[in-house]
Amino acid sequence: MSGRLIITPYNPEQELGCAITQMSDLRTGFNLAPCATLSILRKQNNTITLDDAFWSFTPAWMKQLDQAPYILRADKLESSPMYKESFLQHRCILPVTGYYLWVALSRGKHPFAVRRQHNRPFFLAGLWTRYPVAPGRFYDTFGLISVAPDPWLARLTDRIPLKLSAEQAQEWLDSNTKEKRLKVLLQADDNELECYPVSTLVNDPANQSAQVTSPVADRLKRG
Fold first, then answer.
1. pTM for this structure?
2. 5-221 domain in CATH 3.60.40.10?
C-alpha cells in the first residue's frame, strides 16, 4: 500500500469541474510522506474548500498519537466506531498527480510510481476528522482509503488508494449522497493508471527533487 504521494502544481477547480474556495495554497512535492500537512478538498455549508490537514487520521479521543493511521481500509469504514462518523459526515478528497508502491521482487522491494497518462492529476478518497489541542484550538487530520486493486495492479500489490473520477469525487463530497451509493464508490477503478519503476531515491522522504519521479524502465499499462 502507498505511503508516499506526488503532488505537482495544477488547478483543482479545473480538474474537479466546479468552484472551489481556496483557504490555503495547494501543497506540493515529489515525495510526500505521512505526518505531513497536505491539501484536502471537502464540502462544508454547500461550499467546496481547499484546506490544510495533517496526514494521520486522529480522532479527538485518541491518546497514542503515534498510532493514528494514515491509511484506512475500505472494509472497515462502516463497522469501525473510529471511522463511521467521518464516513457518513466528513469525507474528503486529495488532489494528487501520483503515488508510490513498493513491490516485492527477487532482490527485495522496489519502488514504482503510479500515475495517469501524461502525468495528469486525479483524486484520492479520504476521511477527515478534527483533533482538539486546547480550548477553541484544533487541527484537522485525514486518512486515505485503501481498496483491493483491479487484477492488473494486483500483480504488484494487494492494496491501493481509492481513486475517484471528477464526477465520483463530487458525489463523495456531497453530504446528500446516500450510504448505499457511497458503498458503490468504494470500488477500485484503475482505468487510466499506469506505473513504472523509479530509483531508490524515493526511499528517503528527504529527497524531494523531480528526479525521484523519473522512470528507470518502461511504463506498465493496463493490458
1. 0.94
2. no
